[in-house]
Amino acid sequence: MSAKIIDGQKISEEIQAELSKEIETLKNQYGITPGLAVVLVGENPASQVYVRMKNKACHKIGIYSEQHTMPADTKEADVLKKIDELNRDDRIHGILVQLPLPSHIDEQKVINSILPEKDVDGFHPVNMGKLLIGLDGFKPCTPYGVQKMLVHAGIPVSGAHVVVVGRSNIVGKPVANILLQKQENANATVTVCHSRTKNLAQLTTQADILIAAIGMPEMITADMVKEGAVVIDVGVNRVDDPSSGKGYRLVGDVKYDEVSKKCKAISPVPGGVGPMTITMLLYNTIQAAKNKAAV
């Protein structure tokens, strides 16, 4: 069996082309330019890369974006003050605080300080609560991107058994809740597994759709996957590779070479879920602008 590659880059470009048209309409008919502010504290190299990619994507489709970079030793109070300024700035429709934050800053306190209507990352307890009970709110970008990938790849979710490996607040819990809802492109039966799950392979081999989001390099092997399953790999892990110019390479949570021979469709790393995360951030920012203008 040769797996269909679910190309997140291609799907992202298609969605971004549609979003670009939407922005043109907002600008021409309503005089609105969606605005995103990104707050980056410290010099985490991966965070710097993500922020650069987000700014580039905003520029490409016509979203106004600004970056607020603060030193790693910035006091928590100063980060909260910056968010308060952005909450009150009418040009800014979405606020994203790049995680992780330095250890002396309480991440949850920072997330809680963002106005729910500007929380385009979808992590505020108000938006998480809305997600849980099926109300409209901002969905976290990576899980929302996974759902959109499945839709664009023509993978039926309704009635499917989805097994999620990972229970983080960023991916595992929200993706389980998104696909569980009594809504279009959802209605799945969802099982959530994690590091303490006994007989993990017994559960993963039951999955019609297997979502790996546990942050362990190549943990999901072929013997853990049902023949003909769909596999979505959310993991991004650096592993040492002396043959690479950088000294490392990126791998997912799935052992791609062997799993791809057994499944029906699979998302690669890189080029799978990653581009979708950024695209859904743009989507949420545009939605925030439309909500504010009641368009």
Number of strands: 11
**Secondary structure category:** alpha/beta
Which whole number gives the mean pLDDT? 96
Distinct helical segment count: 10
Rg calculated over all Cα atoms: 19 Å
Instruction: Provide the succession of SSEs.
Output: EHEHEHEHHHEHEHEEEEHEH
CATH top level label of the largest domain: Alpha Beta
**Can you give the helix content as a percent range?**
40-55%
Which short descriptors sum up this protein?
40% helix, 295 residues, six-stranded parallel beta sheet, alpha/beta, Rossmann fold, 2 domains, globular, three-stranded parallel beta sheet
Structure overview:
By secondary structure, this protein is of the alpha/beta class. The protein has 2 domains: 31-115, Leucine Dehydrogenase, chain A, domain 1 (Rossmann fold), CATH 3.40.50; 141-274, Rossmann fold (3-Layer(aba) Sandwich). The protein has helices at residues 8-30, 45-61, 76-87, 107-113, 125-133, 141-152, 172-180, 200-204, 256-259, 273-293; strands at 4-5, 35-41, 64-70, 94-97, 161-165, 189-193, 209-212, 230-233, 237-240, 248-251, 265-266. The strands form 3 sheets. A 6-stranded parallel beta sheet has the order 1-11-8-7-5-6. It has a 3-stranded parallel beta sheet with strand order 3-2-4, sandwiched between helices. Strands 9-10 form a two-stranded antiparallel ribbon. Helix 1 (8-30) packs parallel to helix 10, helix 6 (141-152) packs across helix 7 and helix 6 (141-152) packs across helix 10. It is globular. The chain starts with a strand and ends with a helix. The mean pLDDT is 96.
